[in-house]
Design brief:
The protein is built from 4 helices and no strands. The protein is mainly alpha-helical and 77 residues long.
């Protein structure tokens, strides 16, 4: 690790948990790049589509606890 990066890491370790959390948020946001303006609209359309499919009986809802149980089972394999 270059010296300046090691210094930054050392300073980051001395931060409070709250400060570390905020630093992580800032760094991740920087890596993610600028927000996509169409994301909210795309999600709204997806929610409407899924709701319509539920109402029309095209799909059936699965209880959340069953979803997580299936997921845990798959992760153990």
């Amino acid at each position: 690790m270059p010296n300046d990066l090691a210094e930054i890491a050392e300073k980051a370790r001395s931060l409070s948990a709250k400060q570390k959390t905020e630093l992580i948020r800032v760094l991740i946001a920087d890596l993610d790049g600028p927000p996509d303006d169409d994301v909210d609209q795309a999600w709204a359309l997806e929610v409407e589509r899924r709701h319509r499919e539920l109402k029309e009986g095209k799909v059936q809802a699965v209880p959340g606890d069953r979803v997580f149980e299936d997921l845990r089972s798959r992760l153990k394999q």
